[in-house]
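FW: tagging you since you asked about this chain on Friday. Here's the raw sequence from the shared folder, copied in full. Didn't touch anything.
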Amino acid sequence: MGAPPQGLVFEDPFLAARQPDRPALVGGKESLDAAGRTPWLEPRNMAELIDRLKDKGFSG
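HL: got it, structure written out here
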């Protein structure tokens, strides 16, 4: 089962730092760099993204 881009929501740590009293979420159709530099754009491929998420404790 897959999720369309509209069903994805990411937390942006740079947006969270700038607005600590508001949710720091961006939707799957928004630009991930809307709040400035973001770690979501650092992985160069899906394998690197998966490794990064596993390093942070996510499993799938």
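FW: The mean pLDDT is 76.
HL: agreed, and The two ends are 13 Å apart (CA to CA).
FW: great, closing this out.
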